[in-house]
Write a structure and sequence with these properties.
By secondary structure, the chain is of the alpha/beta class. Helix content is about 35%, strand content about 10%. α6 (about 150-160) packs across α7 (about 185-195) and α9 (about 235-255) packs antiparallel against α10 (about 260-265).
Length: about 300
C-alpha cells in the first residue's frame, strides 16, 4: 500500500513567519565566518579535549616533521616573574605548520591558556571547519582586511579574562617565502589591553609545507622568542606595529647569522627587512635560496 505523502507545512506557526508587505526583511542570521560563536570551545570538556590533542597529537607530530630548536625563552623571564600574565604572541607566517609549532613551543602555562586569531574567511568558512579550528586551536575568527569591533571586543574580553593570544600580523601565509608587511591588529589590542607583545620568528616552516603545496616535507625548524614589547605613552598603533615588525626582522637576522652581529645591525637601525628585494619574482626566488629539504643556499641579498 502506498503511504500518502504528508504535505510540508507552509504557514505560521508550523513554518517560519513571512515578512509583511512594506517591511524590509531582516538579513539572514550567519553562523559561520566572523559570526561563529566560539564560547563553547573554552568550556571544561573542550579544554580537556584540546589538551589531549595538543600533547598527544600536535607535539609528537611537530617533533617528527619539524624537529624544532627553541631559542630565547630566557627573554621571557620578566613575564614569568609577573606570574605569567596574558601576552600577545606575534609571529611571521609561512605555513599552516606555524600555528601548531608555536603552540607546542610555548612554555607552561601559556601553552594551555592561549587562543589563536584565525582568518574568518578561511578557518571559519563552514560549520565543520569552524568547529575544528575552535576545538583544536581555540581559534576565534578575525577579519583579515581590518579588525572589526566584534572580533576586537571578543579578543579583548579573552585577554582581560587571563587568556594569551597568538596572532600572525601579516594576515596570511607568505606567497613566496619572503615576509609581508605587518598589520596593526596586534598593536591595537596591545594598546587597548595594556598587555605586552612577544615577537616570535619562525624559520624553516616554509620548507615543510609552503603555501600552495599539499606535500609535507620534514625539515628542521627554529623558533626564536624575542624580548617583550610594551606600548609607550602616546605611541600610536602604526608605530607600535612597526616596532614589532622590526623586532621580528631582528630575530630573523639573528637566526641566519649570529646574535652579536644581528644586535649590532639592530643598534645601527640596519636590520635587513623581511620583505626581501623589490625585484621580479624570479629574482626574489633566487635571492631567497633553496626552500627544499636539502641544505638551503644563503644569499647575500639584501645587502647588510
Amino acid at each position: 500500500m502506498k503511504i500518502p505523502r504528508i504535505p510540508r507545512p507552509t504557514t505560521f506557526p508550523l513554518a517560519a513567519p513571512t515578512t509583511p508587505e512594506g517591511v524590509a526583511p531582516l538579513p539572514p542570521t550567519r553562523t559561520t565566518g566572523a559570526d561563529y560563536d566560539t564560547e563553547w570551545a573554552r568550556s571544561f570538556p573542550a579544554r580537556w579535549a584540546r589538551n589531549m590533542v595538543l600533547e598527544g597529537l600536535m607535539r609528537p607530530t611537530m617533533a617528527a616533521i619539524a624537529r624544532p630548536t627553541v631559542r630565547g625563552l630566557d627573554r621571557l623571564a620578566d613575564l614569568r616573574d609577573a606570574e605569567f600574565g596574558p601576552v600577545i604572541f606575534c609571529a611571521n607566517h609561512h605555513s599552516h605548520i606555524d600555528t601548531p609549532l608555536v603552540l607546542t613551543s610555548l612554555p607552561e602555562p601559556w601553552r594551555h591558556q592561549v587562543f589563536v586569531g584565525a582568518a574568518a574567511d578561511y578557518f571559519f568558512r563552514t560549520r565543520a571547519t569552524s568547529a575544528t579550528a575552535s576545538l583544536a586551536l581555540n581559534a576565534i575568527p578575525i577579519e583579515r582586511a581590518t579588525v572589526t569591533r566584534k572580533s576586537a571586543n571578543l579578543a579583548t574580553e579573552l585577554i582581560d579574562d587571563g587568556w594569551s593570544m597568538l596572532i600572525f600580523p601579516e594576515g596570511g601565509r607568505s606567497p613566496d617565502g619572503w615576509g609581508q608587511d605587518f598589520r596593526g591588529g596586534a598593536a591595537y589590542l596591545s594598546r587597548r589591553t595594556g598587555v605586552p607583545i612577544v615577537p616570535i620568528h619562525l624559520a624553516g616552516t616554509g620548507r615543510i609545507l609552503r603555501k600552495g603545496s599539499k606535500r609535507v616535507r620534514p625539515s628542521p625548524t627554529i623558533v626564536t622568542f624575542g624580548h617583550p614589547i610594551r606600548p609607550a605613552d602616546g605611541e600610536d598603533t602604526r608605530r607600535l606595529a612597526t616596532r614589532v615588525e622590526t623586532a621580528v626582522a631582528a630575530l630573523a637576522d639573528e637566526t641566519v647569522t649570529d646574535w652579536y652581529d644581528a644586535r649590532k645591525r639592530a643598534h645601527a637601525a640596519a636590520t635587513p627587512a623581511m620583505s626581501g628585494p623589490t625585484a621580479p619574482s624570479w629574482r626574489r626566488a633566487w635571492a631567497l635560496g633553496d626552500r627544499g629539504p636539502r641544505r638551503r643556499r644563503r644569499s647575500s641579498w639584501p645587502e647588510r
